[in-house]
Design brief:
Length: 414
């Protein structure tokens, strides 16, 4: 008997409807999954087999073929465990249910319980766009799924609970939450401008940069506060709109970095990768392309400390996304686009020792070394930077002043 169940795939940051077809026929016992699955989907055979048995159902000892259509779309991740299991139970006539208008998502444990699944938000979004309002998701992902208004979220904790629901033994579980979009977390006092001593001209320049979304490079000796000043930027940037928050949440959902207690990311991201990062880690990539740091800092701040230490190819790779606000990753099988609308903030010393031009300490670098160090940043890259700020040492009197400066919330409101 043939059974069909609807699920979703993620391509870049967008979802795509996937039809899971399960066919059981007489023959030697076998379990085959076709339709361009990756390793995680192929391994679903053992997870599904154990989950069905441990949920009080019978795994058919027949020839089982599962097709994930369309066959030319790559299927990655464990989100197909639950729809495959449901398809087998429907095909073996152990449950009866009309799931023709229902999207089913979720990773199964061996005991039949459902685990957190990455990429729920874009999959629920495409289901809503296609007019499919009933969506079965793991209970741990119900808050994230409920961010898409107009959908009926059915949170499930285990395969056995879903079987009981299909058999009419329990009422349909439903998750209702509309307050998530209105929730705004308080600003973090750890990054408040008020706690930075002195550097008034730098604070003013950062305020101007935040108001216009300008890219910034700060140049100064070690210990002058460049990193701390950069970390204050998210606290004075304008609050994200609901649309911007959903965009950022999609990126983190697909990357598997969305905190379980934070279904909607409200604070602007601040990413600070080390200068040893790879090209794929910075701009995204991999055999199955995933977002990089520039996409994880979308609508926020990408902070590059020790800017000249980053490889020349890394900095040159940033030129295109700085212009287009999007990064396109091409592979032989196709290309995907990730958003990259970030504010670039770089920090660097004026020379390798850090004290070129410093009035308090003598620079030990020869002029040729200083020139070579500063030439590590190319002209085309510098052309994409709007503001250059000199960050000097802080006077002792200002450093010991107990008075607080202007708070970030006041600066943000201007």
């Amino acid at each position: 008997m043939l059974a069909k169940v609807l699920s979703c795939a993620v391509v870049g940051l967008e979802g795509a409807i996937v039809e899971v077809e399960a066919d059981i026929s007489p023959g030697l016992p076998s379990f085959t999954i076709v339709g361009l699955p990756d390793t995680a989907v192929q391994e679903a055979r053992e997870r599904v087999r154990a989950a069905i048995r441990n949920s009080g159902c019978t795994f058919p000892m027949k020839r089982i073929v599962v097709n994930l259509a369309p066959a030319d779309l790559k299927k990655a991740g464990p989100a197909y465990d639950l729809p495959i299991a449901v398809g087998i139970l429907l095909s073996s006539e152990q449950v009866y249910a009309d799931v023709s208008q229902t999207i089913i998502l979720g990773e199964l444990s061996l005991d039949g319980s459902l685990r957190h699944t990455s990429g729920i938000l874009p999959m629920v979004a495409v289901a809503h766009q296609e007019g499919l309002s009933d969506i079965i998701v793991p209970d741990a992902d119900a808050k994230e799924a409920s961010l898409i208004e107009g959908t009926k979220i059915i949170p499930i904790t285990s395969l056995s609970q879903l079987v009981s629901y299909f058999r009419g033994e329990i009422p349909p579980p439903e998750y209702k939450s509309d307050e998530v979009l209105e929730y705004t977390p308080p600003p973090s006092s750890a990054t408040d401008l008020a706690y930075i001593k002195g550097q008034e001209h730098v604070k003013r320049a950062i305020e101007v940069a935040a108001a216009g979304g300008h890219n910034v490079i700060m140049v100064g000796p070690p210990g002058s506060g460049k990193t701390l000043l950069a970390r204050t930027l998210p606290s004075i940037l304008p609050p994200m709109t609901n649309e911007e928050a959903l965009e950022v949440t999609k990126v983190y959902s697909v990357s598997g970095l969305l905190p379980s207690d934070t279904p909607l990311i409200r604070q602007r991201p601040f990413r600070s990768p080390h200068y040893t990062i790879s090209n794929a880690g910075l701009v995204g990539g991999g055999h199955w392309p995933r977002p990089g740091e520039i996409s994880l800092s979308h609508r926020g701040v990408l902070f590059l400390d020790e800017l000249p230490e980053f490889g020349h190819s890394l900095l040159e790779t940033l030129r295109q996304p700085l212009e287009d606000k999007v990064i396109t990753i091409s592979r032989a099988q196709g290309s995907v686009a990730f958003p990259a609308n970030f504010m670039l903030v770089g920090a660097m010393n004026p020379c390798p020792c850090g004290y070129y031009g410093d009035p308090f300490r003598q620079c030990t670098c020869p002029p040729s070394l200083v020139s070579r160090y500063q030439r590590r940043i190319s002209g085309p890259f510098i052309d994409r930077v709007d503001i250059f700020i000199e960050v000097p040492h802080i006077d002792y009197e200002k450093l010991t002043d107990d008075r607080l400066g202007e708070k970030s919330d006041k600066v943000q409101a201007r």
